[in-house]
């Protein structure tokens, strides 16, 4: 009886870990959303996204970055372990991958008239345990030194 329980637990654990590896691989297929009508995209209802645009609700809202940070964003992204996917005059897209399962998150920046708007979101899954909010705050700290 104990042997069957242990086998059941082992099978469940393998399925659980396998599912996370699958999601990590799946997240590599996506791309940053880009601008939607001149602004960063709204967050979905899931808690794995933050955005500083005016359309953000209380759960997903985060403060924008100072305009003076714009030119230093690519270096700050690389220093924080990310990669710049595209860079234009008023838009920067970057990606970050988690170490364990390789989940890819998109971090996007839009240069506004008085600040830099930011959006950080997971490509897959529901919860991120606050990783995207923490990432933006880490970048903010690096960019305001």
What is this structure's SSE topology?
Blueprint (H helix, E strand, L loop, with lengths): L1 H26 L7 E2 L2 E2 L8 E3 L13 E2 L6 H7 L3 E5 L3 E7 L6 E8 L3 E8 L8 H13 L2
Antiparallel strand pairs: 1-2, 3-8, 4-8, 5-6, 6-7, 7-8
Keywords for this entry:
single chain; 145 residues; alpha+beta; TATA-Binding Protein; six-stranded antiparallel beta sheet; two-stranded antiparallel sheet; elongated
Model description:
The chain has 145 residues and is an alpha+beta fold. It has a single domain, classed as TATA-Binding Protein (2-Layer Sandwich). Helices cover 32% and strands 26% of the residues. It has three helices and eight strands; from the N terminus they run αββββαββββα. The strands form two sheets. Strands 3, 4, 5, 6, 7 and 8 form a six-stranded antiparallel sheet that branches. The chain has a two-stranded antiparallel ribbon with strand order 1-2. Strand 6 and strand 7 form a beta hairpin. The radius of gyration is 18 Å and the shape is elongated.
């Amino acid at each position: 009886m104990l042997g069957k329980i242990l086998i059941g637990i082992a099978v469940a654990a393998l399925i659980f870990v396998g599912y996370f590896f699958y999601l990590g691989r799946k997240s590599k297929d996506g791309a940053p959303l880009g601008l939607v009508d001149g602004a960063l995209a709204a967050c979905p209802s899931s808690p794995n996204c933050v955005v500083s645009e005016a359309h953000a609700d209380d759960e997903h809202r985060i403060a924008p970055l100072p305009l003076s940070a714009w030119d230093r964003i690519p270096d700050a992204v690389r220093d924080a372990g990310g990669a710049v996917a595209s860079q234009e005059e008023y838009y920067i897209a970057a990606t970050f991958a988690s170490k364990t399962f390789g989940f890819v998150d998109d971090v996007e920046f839009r240069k506004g008239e008085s600040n830099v708007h930011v959006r950080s979101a997971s490509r897959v899954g529901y919860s991120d345990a606050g990783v995207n909010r923490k990432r933006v705050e880490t970048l903010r700290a690096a960019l305001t030194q």
